[in-house]
Write a sequence for this structure.
């Protein structure tokens, strides 16, 4: 396999046009070609499909790194970078199990792009929308395959303890901002879409529901603000997103502008969270969409606080969600920890 790939890169790939892989159908043709090569080499060399696919991905990474090194450690982009997406698709197609190789592939993609939106956007929006958002089309067949691919790479990224630094910030794979979506995190984009299925996947793997520097409110508040627009005729998907988000955070932390209350001469220990909840989201509270224990009106349930703390410890050790079944607790509590039940 290694000899074949060296010959291919030297004698064939180097002579292809720089933009030869810009079109999705051309990348798919090359994927089909390498699928046949992997199957043939595995059979001819009496190796497993996984080992042969691993050798291909390593060969692609070596070639990409060599071209990058010869260009002052700057990616040449074009066909040289799209080769990484050929390797990405093949790793998924053959369910590559080698965690280190898949992690190295993800690291290389981040080094060049500083984002993983070509893995996330197809799963969030489907196969066509990324073309209008970012000018490229998903390498996966349909939205369902995009979601399966996202879970595949989330699993590998979690097992490899992958983290990425950008300035003074450190991101997990699941939280790396999406450039084409205003640098919002994937979980915020999913919440804005009202995509409950995708939100469940991201929350189970430990996506952070936090306030971002460039966005004033937290994602839970953005759901509540959207629900207010429907005059108490709430969409099912949006309500489901709210319920899922409330399972993943200890309580709703409302954005408080204390300046607007300074004329009231309130005491220093005044419960501003309660005031904002009642004034701004009173109808939503009356309709019981937000428990009074999650918005500052009553103390948070101890069981829920324990869930959040245990999940935080599992997240810190890169054990979400697959570390939950390892805990010596009843299955019902495992489902509670895994956000399937409230």
């Amino acid at each position: 396999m290694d000899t074949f790939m060296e010959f291919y890169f030297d004698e064939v790939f180097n002579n292809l046009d720089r933009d030869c892989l810009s079109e999705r159908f051309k990348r798919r043709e090359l994927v089909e070609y390498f699928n046949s090569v992997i199957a043939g080499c595995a059979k001819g060399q009496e190796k497993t499909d996984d080992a042969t696919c691993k050798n291909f991905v390593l060969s692609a990474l070596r070639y990409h790194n060599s071209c990058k090194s010869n260009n002052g450690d700057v990616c040449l982009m074009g066909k040289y970078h799209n080769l990484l997406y050929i390797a990405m698709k093949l790793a998924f197609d053959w369910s590559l199990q080698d965690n280190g190789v898949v992690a190295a592939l993800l690291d290389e993609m981040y080094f060049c792009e500083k984002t993983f939106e070509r893995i996330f956007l197809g799963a969030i929006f489907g196969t066509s929308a990324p073309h209008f958002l970012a000018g490229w089309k998903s390498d996966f067949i349909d939205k369902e395959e995009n979601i399966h691919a996202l879970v595949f790479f989330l699993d590998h990224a979690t097992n490899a303890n992958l983290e990425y630094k950008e300035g003074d910030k450190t991101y997990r794979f699941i939280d790396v901002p999406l450039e084409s979506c205003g640098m919002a995190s994937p979980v915020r984009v999913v919440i804005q879409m009202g995509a409950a299925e995708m939100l469940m996947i991201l929350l189970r793997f430990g996506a952070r529901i936090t306030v971002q520097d460039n966005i004033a409110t937290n994602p839970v508040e953005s759901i509540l603000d959207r629900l207010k627009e429907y005059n108490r005729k709430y969409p099912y998907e949006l309500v489901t997103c709210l319920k899922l988000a409330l399972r993943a955070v200890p309580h709703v932390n409302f954005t408080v502008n204390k300046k607007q209350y300074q004329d009231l001469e309130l005491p220093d220990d005044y419960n501003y969270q309660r005031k904002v909840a009642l004034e701004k989201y009173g109808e939503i509270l009356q309709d019981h969409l937000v428990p009074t224990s999650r918005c500052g009106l009553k103390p948070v349930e101890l069981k829920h606080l324990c869930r959040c703390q245990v999940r935080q410890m599992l997240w810190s050790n890169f054990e979400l969600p697959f570390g939950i079944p390892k805990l010596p607790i009843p299955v019902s509590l495992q489902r509670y920890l895994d956000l399937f039940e409230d």
